[in-house]
């Protein structure tokens, strides 16, 4: 059983339709395989196949071409009978906001079914009889309806075969190159395109009119239009992929033939804004675009968004192109339609929803550069939802509702603020800062601002920002008379003339303001305003020239360069503009978000989003690499530094910040993550180099300390008492030898080295504390030994003197008289003992004094000599080992050479005196003597 409801269930349903139109629906049921000519006939007459299920399908036609198509099929079926059933009914074509489409029919028609199609029959709904009868040769007649059809007065279609039922569809396809004819690239690119398209025209058998300004081709059938659009898209893609040498952008549109003649005046008579068409894509009405079939994708254009009619213009691409772009990285952002709708472009903000005198930017007093960071925190995947939220928040009075959104909170406010911040240099709040700036460099133009001084001009500014233009004019007249050589009244007069729609007078004032300016900052701003006025007037080449001049005077300020790209897009040179935009993005990643959301880029938005999708795809790859790099850095930090390390704690904060960057899917944060990872990696590498160098220096310092300790402790007279001291000393020596011989730029070795260094330092401190006691014992012992030595020989000298002096004293006493002589003679033995005691004391004092004076010198000399002796012995042992190793190595080399010399003749038997076969020796091989054999 065939059911119409199955076909209707396949189609999408919309809560709210973007476009709606009435037309004709056809339910087709057949048995077996459907004939290709039958389907092709429906498509050639403008039929849109909505759904298919087995041997049934549902079609929609926008016009009476449905009746002509059915008439041709009825005649064809008479010659080629098939079991087929057609039911023609009223239908409504619905288009959603995502360009998907569906159909709606009356409720009493939805539940129809059919069990068997039977003989060829075409049933016509009662409401369509009048339309059928309006086609010459067609009529209706009563018949017996099939079971399952709705209970209506259905009629059978009757066709007169003598009439011609050819399709009346037809178009003029117009191609116009962009730019000026005087441009050399224009002529080269346009002629090259003609040389490539002419063979296609001849192959398709088309007539055409070609000159330096356009190419016009009449398209007489839907099949021909479909083939031509496919051919022209492939051709332009091939030309663009072959390099920029011969490519030149152009706009193209398929215009219905109704009321138009095939002549050179045709482009002028077409009610189409050529300067707003996206270059390099065929433009058609939505009605014709949907008729082309599912091989083509329909893409909306901004300036027709608010109308919501199938007669509005769109452009098409091949379905394969959209499939290539429909990846996770693709960017499809639909800006708020209510901001893009309109015919006039606001000087201050570039929006078309209001005029300059009504712009909400009048009330802005300061710049808001922080909005770019806020915008970057919104994932790119949410931009469309935020745009929709902003669109829903706007009412018909967009200027008032915009003010309300700007004063609210949420993502819609961020987006609205960013849109106004894009054109901040052309707004009154920027002029206020220029008046107060005294800087000569754009990098710090607004760091130091002068107070608001001057008569009349600030009152005039307040009036302008309060939207009181008449009062501002009065104040400006007074200011001009008071300060005839001042740039300030001229600059504000430019805004007054602009709001009064006197473009030429505004250009004059901006030019005068630039001429009277004092600093490069002022001149650049007035050049930008001058260029902006040309841009609003549609004179994009003049605007570009002024923006370039401003760029030369404002190195480091990307706004002038960006405006050049905007002008290129407005002229239609989107591919050229992307090179400019790429430069801006490379310098400041915030331009990526700005380009995606800039309403002034609407003409080239489709191409821009395609290119930005590629950049975003590359950014996603960069994001993956950066996250891997971040993880590697984290592992590196874990491997090199402990959690308690000071540098590790600092880096953990950087890790937390970078990981937060990775959580936001926005180009700005991807670039920040990549740049932050590179910077952090450099910092970590530098710190590792520093720590390794510091550890190496520590090892040298520890070695010197250990060497000192060794020299001080090696002469302790009681080595068996130094058991704990020796254990610590040997531990330090072992660990320092390990650190000295290992490659410390290895993470594991470095961590072990750091741990060893802490332990070594602790034990060295302990050794040095113990060394104080050892030094006291050692020096005391050495001092005592020297003292004893000095005392002994001094005592011996004293005893000798006592032995010599005592007999002499007794002799003198015997030969003299007196009490002293008697005392000496009676007490000579006591005197002997007293003299020995005195001399011993004197010897001890002299020995102590001499020892104290010469102790340090003798100690140093003795230890140095002993150290050098030990060192020489150690070096001698090492030299002996080295010489023995060299001797063994030399013997091994000699043995190898001898072995090679012996094996060499046997391995090369042709080295004989008689040649390879031993000629001259009777064919016997005779080996040449080798050095080994000679030896």
Automatic annotation (TrEMBL):
GO terms for molecular function: nucleic acid binding; zinc ion binding. Residues 900-935 are annotated as: Disordered. Residues 346-361 form the CCHC-type domain. The chain crosses the membrane at residues 791-813, 833-853. It comes from the Bacteria. The keyword rRNA-binding does not apply. InterPro entries: TPR-like_helical_dom_sf, Znf_CCHC. The keyword Transmembrane helix applies. Keywords: Membrane, Transmembrane, Transmembrane helix. This is CCHC-type domain-containing protein. It comes from Desulfocurvibacter africanus subsp. africanus str. Walvis Bay. The lineage of its organism: Bacteria, Pseudomonadati, Thermodesulfobacteriota, Desulfovibrionia, Desulfovibrionales.
